[in-house]
Specification:
This protein has 258 residues and is α/β, with parallel strands linked by helices. It is 47% helix and 16% strand. It has 9 helices and 9 strands. It has helices at residues 2-11, 14-31, 39-53, 56-65, 106-116, 139-150, 166-180, 194-201, 234-254, and strands spanning 81-84, 89-91, 99-101, 122-125, 129-132, 135-138, 156-159, 184-190, 207-213. The strands form 3 sheets. Strands 7-4-1-8-9 form a 5-stranded parallel sheet, sandwiched between helices. A two-stranded antiparallel ribbon has the order 2-3. Helix 2 (14-31) packs antiparallel against helix 3 (39-53) and helix 4 crosses helix 9 (234-254). The model has no long low-confidence stretch (mean pLDDT 89).
Length: 258
């Protein structure tokens, strides 16, 4: 009964209704032989179906996520510092904690797990800025303040402030490590973003140990994987992650950052 109710509820979702109505309309137009001018809506429906009803987007994203081998935390060596790239948290004036966890929050939880295991004496926090009413709130500062006030860790915290992108984060971290005479860094970021982040660090003298996390592809999650399922907007999120990294890679190449 619970499974039936969940299935019925899924059928009421706007995304499913759009897919269903468009599909029925296309079939009707073909039935009355008006298919000559349907190539544009038909292409849209095929694209919609491919991304929302199949694991195509997950296969694309997995091709990025699996470029860097998965790691076991206990087998990682010690380092001079842990770097948690931004993207998993945003400052909040509404949340009681002062921060709002986003889809990339696995970055922070992984970095904290490394810190708890004593893998490094320094945790460096990166992240972007959030403009609001004439002020810019720093993701890294918000996380640092949250950890300093609410989490007991035997590790030094350092915020690199507001960064414009991954390249900016890398430059600030490389400068900090050079200033402190540090060499080895545990780099924590999303698995799909890791190849680009490692490539940027390749332009510095920092020795990077990748710690990929935040796997979004369904192929890297528990559960059975089927070639067709009812439409879900999740496939579009997966595709967005993939295309963001692909475009980002070529932009970084063009700018000479990797």
């Amino acid at each position: 009964m619970n499974t039936l109710l969940k299935t019925v509820l899924q059928f009421t979702q706007p995304f499913f209704l759009i897919w269903l109505i468009l599909g029925i309309w296309l079939l009707r137009q073909l039935w009355i032989r008006r298919g000559v001018h349907l190539w544009m809506p038909a292409t849209s429906w095929v694209l919609l179906t491919g991304l929302s009803c199949t694991p195509i987007a997950s296969f694309l994203l997995a091709s990025l996520e699996n470029q860097v081998p998965k790691v076991q935390m206990n087998q990682l060596p010690a380092a001079d510092a842990i770097l948690c790239l931004g993207g998993g948290v945003e400052p909040s004036l509404s949340e009681p904690s002062g921060i709002h966890l986003k889809a990339g929050a696995d970055r922070l939880s992984t970095a904290l797990a490394l810190a708890a295991k004593g893998k490094a004496p320094l945790l460096i926090l990166g992240g972007g800025g959030y403009p609001h009413k004439g002020r810019t709130f720093s993701e890294a500062d918000a996380v640092r303040d949250y950890l300093a006030d609410r989490v007991s860790l035997n590790i030094q915290l350092h915020s690199i402030g507001v960064c414009s992108d991954t390249h900016d984060e890398v430059l600030k971290v490389a400068a900090l490590m050079k200033q402190r005479g540090l060499k080895r860094l545990l780099l924590v970021t999303s698995a799909s973003h890791m190849p680009r982040a490692v490539a940027v660090f390749g332009k510095t003298d920092v020795q990077v140990i990748p710690v990929p996390c935040n796997y979004h592809s369904s192929l890297n999650h528990l559960g059975d994987h089927h070639w067709f399922h009812w439409p879900s907007y999740h496939g579009f999120e997966i595709f967005a992650f993939w295309i963001h990294e692909v475009i980002g890679h070529y932009v970084y190449l063009w700018r000479g950052w990797i």
